[in-house]
Amino acid sequence: MLQLLMLIMMLLLLLMMMIKIMLMVAVMMLMLMLMPMMLMIMLLLLLLLLLLLMMMMMMMMMMMMMMMMMMMMMMMMMMMMMMMMIWYGP
């Protein structure tokens, strides 16, 4: 009786193992099937990130350029004022 129970238990365990292995294989197959899709999605995400970075860089550059332009304008204005002061000075 005891041996029979043990045998049944062993069989059940084996069955469980088999099911687990089958599931693993199925998952692996699914992964393999979906791999191109996954890769495509990953690539798209990477591209989006790169684009965002580029946009940020561009914005920064634009801001820097604007700042430089403003500084130049201010300098020019100062120079003009100085010239005027010297010209129409005493």
Poorly predicted runs: none
The tally of strands reads 0
Rounded mean pLDDT is: 87
The major beta sheet can be summarized as: none
Instruction: Give the overall form.
Output: rod-shaped
Taken as a percent bin, the fraction of beta residues is under 5%
Structural class: mainly alpha
Spell the H/E element sequence. Answer: H
Helix content: over 70%
Q: Give the termini distance in whole angstroms.
A: 125 Å
Rg over CA atoms, rounded to whole Å, is 37 Å
Task: Compute the number of helices.
Answer: 1
Keywords: Membrane, Transmembrane, Transmembrane helix
Notes on the structure:
Keywords: Membrane, Transmembrane, Transmembrane helix. The chain crosses the membrane at residues 7-31, 37-56, 68-88. The protein has one helix spanning 2-87. The chain is mainly α and 90 residues long. The model has no long low-confidence stretch (mean pLDDT 87).
